[in-house]
Design brief:
Oligomer: single chain
Distance between the termini: 24 Å
Strand content: under 5%
Number of helices: 12
Order of helices and strands: HHHHHHHHHHHH
Number of strands: 0
Largest sheet: none
Shape: elongated
Length: 214
């Protein structure tokens, strides 16, 4: 695990790379953000952004989406992959929003997780992005980068989240989340990470392990 000094160094560098970190999903309401995050599972944000304008034009609120025919939703989101399961999830999610929360997206991680298609990562991301909660979601990028930078060696996303909460105590974790996501998406990729030009070599466990015999 990293020292406070190294943590500050890591995030100062990430801020240099991404000086205005933000969610790359496009949305106009908490409802749209929630649905977009659900759809982004195992899919790129860019792809989701290509699909959601038509989806939200036809179903602008939970009330409309809750009444949608599943075949119609499937036809819209088909290019995203796993479109059948995702169609069921977002329609059921809309129904639950109407039934449980009067059509409003709750600012509460536990309440959000009662919704179809919403796990802890999605709940953390939505509350952080929409409501400014100091939460951190652990997606595949955050999970990978956290291990490589020795911010956590947790075996599950929840364990990584708990380690990050401890490691990043006193920081804006909702901002740090997007820094880690963007770093993992564009620099510290799963395949062929850009180690040669990275300034974190001295604090990176992945880099040290990779070059320990050279």
């Amino acid at each position: 695990m990293q020292t406070r000094e190294n943590i500050n160094f890591i995030f100062e560098y990430l801020n240099e790379l991404f000086p205005n970190p933000k969610c790359e999903l496009k949305y106009n309401s908490p409802f749209e953000m929630l649905i977009a995050v659900i759809l982004s599972a195992q899919c790129t944000d860019k792809r989701v952004n290509e699909i959601t304008p038509l989806l939200f034009k036809k179903y602008p609120t939970p009330y409309e989406l809750s009444q949608a025919r599943i075949e119609d939703v499937e036809n819209i989101i088909r290019p995203l992959g796993f479109f059948r399961n995702k169609s069921k999830s977002i329609i059921n999610c809309a129904k639950q929003l109407v039934e449980l929360y009067d059509g409003q997206v709750p600012n509460d991680v536990d309440k959000l997780q009662k919704l179809s298609g919403v796990g802890r990562k999605t709940a953390n991301v939505v509350t952080a992005e929409v409501f400014g909660a100091n939460n951190i979601g652990v997606d595949t990028h955050v999970f990978r980068v956290s291990h490589r930078l020795d911010l956590s060696q947790g075996k599950t996303p929840y364990e990584v989240e708990q380690d990050l909460v401890k490691q990043l105590q006193g920081r804006q974790m909702n901002i740090d989340h997007f820094l880690l996501v963007l770093f993992g998406r564009y620099q510290c990729k799963a395949v062929k990470p850009n180690c040669a030009e990275c300034k974190l070599q001295n604090v990176c466990r992945f880099y040290k392990d990779k070059h320990k015999n050279t």
